[in-house]
Design brief:
Largest sheet of chain A: 6 strands, mixed
Radius of gyration of chain A: 21 Å
Distance between the termini of chain A: 33 Å
Number of strands of chain A: 11
Strand content of chain A: 15-25%
CATH superfamily of the largest domain in chain A: PurM-like, N-terminal domain
Helix content of chain A: 25-40%
Number of helices of chain A: 8
Largest interface: A-B, 68 and 68 residues
Mean pLDDT of chain A: 95
Number of domains of chain A: 2
Order of helices and strands of chain A: HEEHEHEEEHEHEHHEHEE
Structural class of chain A: alpha+beta
Oligomer: homodimer
CATH architecture of the largest domain in chain A: 2-Layer Sandwich
Shape of chain A: globular
Chain lengths: 320, 320
């Protein structure tokens, strides 16, 4: 089953807007709370019960042809939409709470694909404690599909970018590179790790890796620091090696530049970095953690720790 | 200036993603708070200061070719995006607080048009006390543009649908019909009225008119009541008459069915309806208020008050 269908009876255009919304809400399942917190009103009405100091808010989309292709299953596309957003919340150390889902559907979108998509959205949401409280559906041109999720989370202490200090150690979770061979459709946001990191005073700044280390690192450290990266320590995904064989470039170049890793990249105070790493490994024995560099006074550049030369390659720029 | 340009130097594809975001943030102006509440992080970090009982959450989009056409100014398109969302908040009686803006841009979108769009978003937001705290930008195919806004508001007492009672009187603000002759691009959401209505105990249910009275009325009253509508009382926009001359239909048919009125439709307890109307007119001397019918036990139908026959016409269904 692919995203678009030529069978008239399977097209979303065959059902009324009301029925379409019913089908989506039903597929979202228990992630969707009842009215008035859920669908059925002009707005979702959410009782304010969270005592946390901060509400943490983000929005992200998946578009066919850009974030997945039309042969991708609804399950993987739906999961990617939710996990992309959750990865941003993870980077801020926030607990997911509620979300709104906006769908733009060409008339030839396959109803069964859409059900699978909404089921996956519901399942990924529930796994993370996230509710899908409402949304909107619009018709667009045939052969097109996009889905946007806006998410609210809560946190008592937040992690942000541009708050690192001189000598901080640079850490990354998981592995990097070659994401487009599969990882980009099959990852889980590091929600638990992010929540835990936000409670560690040794952690000074954090971001998630979506555009590639070389592009995300400068936004993490800000304009007054440089990051020295030890290329030999980069944790490389097996796919980074596979893709390097095809591209003729080095695996570490893919690890630096490919994007869509959805791992956490963060800074830890130098003095506490060893004890921090031990503590992390105790809490998350199955999450790889690697110290890949350190922070120096500088001008917002990522440099090779050996040569001190800035890396010149670009990340995964949407408009580059 | 229209939405798309053939001049290479004016295309959004000419600037990097970072510059594009800078341009948008700059155009949003003071509606956009500084980091970390505003752009620059993985999420917007919003201190929880609102003591209201409910957070009220909604999401809505504008798409070229659907909600405006490519000759429409960025100013009117941007305003429409914000006011559409605010109209949903108004229907819930909520005070606008913060929002996220997601843009999907074809490479040939005109940068100056986009600036005008973002300026208008910022201006409409500021007028209503709404901040644009973050967002996302994606590239899509040439000749396409969509913008989605998700909004959070707050309320101590909310208005909802399906909470009316037998004998309630049905009221509507403003005038109806013919919106596509201009009103749909040039309206202001009834935020002040909605906030005030939420504080009147006589008001039992409320919605905003986006899909046309005949379609929105059943969702307002729910499945256990009917609404008897007095056609002679329908407040008709001059454009409803103009468009009726073109369509060969009656002006009241347009008032019932056209959609995009963005007026408030609500129910008031019968006993208090006269004093309510006096109070409303005192508070909002410039907002037309009309009692157009009443609620009876029934099955979710809108009926003609004279003949008691259900109206059979459909509203402005997105997928109909």
């Amino acid at each position: 089953m692919s995203l678009f269908t030529t069978q008239k009876s399977r097209r979303v255009a065959q059902v009324s807007e009301e029925n379409l919304i019913e089908i989506i809400v039903h597929s979202l399942g228990r992630a969707c709370p009842p009215f008035p917190a859920g669908p059925g009103g002009d707005c979702a009405i959410i009782p304010q019960t969270e005592k946390a100091r901060y509400r943490v808010s983000t929005i992200d989309s998946v578009i066919v042809g850009r974030h997945f292709d039309s042969s991708c299953s609804g399950k993987l596309a739906g999961r990617k939409l939710v996990e992309r957003n959750l990865s941003d919340l993870a980077a801020s150390g926030a607990k997911p709470k509620d979300a709104l889902l906006s769908l733009m559907l060409g008339p030839n979108v396959d109803l069964d694909w859409l059900k699978e998509f909404a089921q996956a959205v519901g399942q990924s949401a529930r796994r993370a404690g996230l509710r899908i409280n409402g949304g909107d559906v619009c018709q667009i041109q045939a052969g097109q599909f996009s889905a946007t999720l806006s998410v609210q989370g809560f946190s008592q202490r937040v992690l942000t970018r541009t708050t690192c200090r001189k000598d901080d150690r640079l850490f990354v979770t998981g592995e990097l590179g070659g994401s487009r061979l599969g990882h980009h459709l099959n990852f889980r946001a590091r929600i638990s790790e992010g929540l835990w990191l936000a409670n560690q005073k040794a952690v000074t700044a954090c971001t998630d890796l979506s555009d590639g280390l070389l592009k995300d690192l400068p936004s993490l450290i800000g304009k007054k620091y440089d990051a020295l990266v030890d290329l030999e320590k980069l944790p490389m995904r097996r796919a980074a090696h596979t893709i390097a064989q095809q591209s003729g470039r080095k695996a570490w170049q893919h690890a630096l530049q490919d994007g869509e890793d959805y791992e956490l990249l963060f800074c830890v105070k130098a003095k506490e970095s060893s004890s921090f790493a031990r503590k992390f490994k105790k809490h998350f024995p199955r999450t790889r953690l690697t110290e890949i560099g350190l922070i120096q006074v500088g001008q917002g550049l990522a440099r090779d720790q050996k040569t001190h030369r800035p890396f010149s390659g670009k990340g995964f720029g949407h408009f580059a």
